[in-house]
């Protein structure tokens, strides 16, 4: 690999906006730029897309079932341009909304628990805990954390993650694309299930992301500029066919060379890039690529609920709950049918009423022949036993509870749904929550690993744009990491904080008792300074609000000097008083002071 690292190439979609679109001419100013060896590259991309589609087939069909019973709006069965039925009803399978509401609670709980926009949830930190940071290093880490957080807050990161976590809980997978943007610095995109195809590396990490999606002619010109569009798009633009759709294919994969004609090695993207990206019109080999770009860091994260060995797609909470969800839909239908038969049962009628006006609607009249005292009338063919209704309702409630447990609603609504004896103190409350959160531990860890990718990508973009302070010399050579201080992570750490507080309170009581008894103080076994710093760290107390060890030592020395200076006048007065007493005390041969100064003891 070339040791020289070239800067990432700027592409038009990083600047797409209404202002960029307004600058596009009616006709192109130059022919589209063909990528060298495009035919070879196109064949490679289409083959990979076809292969990934084949491997995804079983997941794709399962996703359709999950979407039908939980959240139909987050799935595309087939990506096809110019479909006019997108506004059709898609919730035909959902009669009871328990599963959909539980998914909403689960997604919102994961969003606020891991990436809450209202409080800090990550920070740049030292990777080795035994390293002592200097003041400028700690300040740089704090400043970098705030700057990255500001960029995330000003972008569309939080709305995207608000949808990504329900996707993780539903489909088990949610790929989030991270692109540089002229307006937002970083902009995020979330393909829905049915659009994306994933592949993994030998480390079982997702490193390949293909997708297909539809864009209108106006959107394609806005995203790639008219000069970079193939002739089909340019012609449609010139003819005013702005809302005609095309299927756009998109590939992100490691930047390895491929085999071309004559067994020649072909570089898709030249340069020392770890990843490459290509946009093209799907199935159109004669068209030039829409965009080609290289990346030094992976420009996407693939969130997965549960990893499955060598599979690029994850398993999900909703996959565990699909059986219960089908059951509750079926039982709800049967319950409605049961009630309907009780209120509007199938009716029998005398044969003489055949072809006569008849009705069972309230306030309507049915005329009958009552001659000879015989009344022709309607009668229910059978009567429903409404005592069974309570049993059906109770079973539906049990199934709904199982669905909510599969989606961890009891975890995210722990305090509001707490049953029985309420916790007596903070320690008991924390332990109860921790028991629930232990089940989500693996999911939290996997999510934080993908958040690492997003945060490092944003950090890299900001660094290239000179939006970060220069790293101080004291941090050079010190490994750094991203620590997470989210609500869920803090909840897992809360047991330690509560235990420390309990120990220190107990130590304080024992210290008072020891002083009263005149025995050695047991609190001397605790390093109070280190305990205070560790407690502040696990409680997510701002590091810039704590004095460094050097500052604490300087303050201690200043207090000691002030104490000595305050005691000096008292010591001088005591010496004067002692001298006066000695001078007034008479001994043989003079005063006691003369005896001390001159050695005159008065002894002959």
TrEMBL record:
A Pfam cross-reference name: Head-tail_con
Compartments (UniProt record): Virion
Keywords, in A-Z order: Viral genome packaging, Viral release from host cell
Chain spans, region Disordered: 585-604
Main location (coarse class): virion
Protein name listed in UniProt: Bacteriophage head to tail connecting protein
């Amino acid at each position: 690999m070339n040791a020289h690292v070239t800067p990432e190439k700027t592409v038009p979609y990083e600047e797409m906006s209404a202002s960029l679109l307004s600058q596009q001419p009616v006709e192109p100013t130059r022919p589209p730029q063909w990528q060298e060896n495009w035919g070879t590259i196109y064949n490679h991309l289409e083959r990979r897309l076809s292969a990934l589609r084949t491997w995804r087939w079983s997941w794709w069909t399962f996703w359709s079932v999950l979407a039908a019973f939980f959240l139909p709006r987050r799935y595309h069965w087939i990506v096809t341009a110019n479909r006019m039925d997108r506004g059709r009803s898609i919730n035909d399978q959902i009669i009871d909304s328990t599963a959909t509401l539980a998914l909403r609670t689960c997604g919102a709980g994961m969003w606020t628990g891991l990436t809450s926009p209202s409080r800090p949830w990550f920070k740049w930190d030292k990777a080795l805990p035994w390293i002592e940071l200097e003041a400028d290093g700690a300040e740089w880490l704090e400043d970098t954390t705030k700057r990255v957080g500001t960029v995330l807050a000003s972008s569309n990161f939080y709305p995207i993650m608000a949808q990504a976590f329900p996707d993780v809980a539903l489909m088990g997978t949610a790929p989030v694309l991270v692109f540089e943007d002229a307006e937002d610095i970083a902009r995020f995109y979330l393909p829905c299930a049915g659009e994306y195809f994933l592949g993994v590396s030998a480390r079982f990490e997702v490193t390949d992301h293909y997708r297909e999606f539809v864009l209108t002619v106006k959107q394609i010109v806005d995203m790639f500029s008219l000069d970079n569009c193939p002739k089909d798009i340019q012609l449609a633009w010139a003819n005013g066919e702005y809302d005609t759709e095309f299927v756009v294919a998109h590939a992100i994969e490691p930047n390895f060379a491929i085999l071309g004609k004559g067994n020649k090695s072909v570089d898709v993207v030249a340069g020392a890039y770890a990843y490459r990206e290509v946009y093209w019109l799907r199935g159109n080999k004669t068209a030039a690529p829409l965009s080609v770009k290289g990346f030094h860091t992976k420009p996407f994260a693939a969130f997965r609920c549960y990893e499955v060995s060598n599979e690029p797609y994850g398993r999900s909470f909703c996959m565990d709950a699909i059986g219960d969800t089908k059951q509750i839909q079926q039982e709800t239908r049967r319950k409605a049918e049961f009630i309907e038969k009780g209120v509007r049962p199938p009716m029998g009628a005398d044969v003489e009423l055949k072809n006569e006006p008849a009705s069972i609607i309230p306030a309507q009249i049915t005329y009958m022949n009552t001659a000879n005292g015989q009344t022709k009338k309607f009668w229910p063919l059978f009567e429903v036993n409404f005592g069974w209704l309570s049993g059906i309702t109770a079973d539906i409630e049990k199934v709904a509870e199982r669905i909510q447990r599969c989606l961890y609603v009891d975890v995210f609504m722990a305090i509001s749904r707490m049953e029985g004896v309420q916790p007596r103190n903070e320690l008991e409350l924390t332990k109860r929550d921790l028991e629930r959160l232990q089940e989500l531990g693996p999911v939290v860890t996997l999510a934080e690993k993908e958040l690492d990718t997003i945060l490092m990508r944003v950090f890299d973009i900001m660094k290239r744009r000179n939006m970060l302070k220069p790293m101080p010399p004291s941090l050079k050579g010190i490994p750094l990491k991203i620590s997470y201080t989210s609500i869920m992570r803090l909840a897992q750490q809360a047991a330690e904080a509560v235990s420390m507080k309990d120990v220190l309170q107990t130590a304080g009581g024992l210290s008072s008792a020891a002083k009263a008894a005149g025995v050695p103080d047991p609190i001397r076994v605790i390093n109070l300074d280190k305990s205070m710093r560790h407690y502040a760290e696990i409680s997510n107390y701002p590091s810039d609000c704590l004095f460094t060890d050097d500052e604490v030592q300087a303050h201690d020395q200043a207090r000691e000097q002030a104490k000595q200076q305050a005691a000096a006048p008292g010591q001088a007065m005591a010496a004067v008083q002692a001298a006066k007493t000695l001078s007034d005390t008479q001994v043989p041969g003079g005063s006691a002071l003369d005896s001390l100064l001159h050695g005159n003891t008065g002894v002959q």
